[in-house]
Amino acid sequence: MNDPTKLAASLQLTAPGLRLSLWQPSHAEALYEAVRESIPTVGRWLPWCHAGYLREDAAGWIERCRSGAEGGEPCAFGVFDDNGLLLGGVGLNRFDRQHRSANLGYWVRTQAQGRGVAARAARRLAAFGFDTLGLCRIEIVAAMGNLASRRCAEKTGARFEGIARHRLTVGGEPVDAAVYGLLPVDLDQPADAQSSAMS
Asked: Which domains, from first to last, does the chain contain?
């Protein structure tokens, strides 16, 4: 597995209608605004998206991503549209070098939800993880009730593998989570075909 902390700071990836850029200090204000907008939707599932979120939090997150200091989360991207609007974020984390695996997470700001942004971004980053980082397995873990995130996992091509009890904490309480596995071969099929096969 290649070292994800050695990526060029200016790295960008493209997907249909999207540009994925490693977080830059110049993104802090846009990140702050996107998070504040999305507290009612994203904040329901992700504890860092809360009413007390500050500009300093956005800047601090970006610095942690850039320094690779946050325990295995050095591969995080802002997701932008063709006009430069920040739509959300996508990242690989919890790297297991021995088994060449990682987790994949994503979020989309409220105004851009329901347009397939997360699935396109996640699919592109998964391909990067396999082709460039040398991963052989990616997991997506979503709270059982987070149907939008689970649907996105399916659209990415990931396969539902089971339910992990108390795998996540939502609102301070442990909750069961759906675990999806994504292998390189899963990206060979069109996302729509893969998703339909799981319906």
From this structure: 4-198 (3.40.630.30)
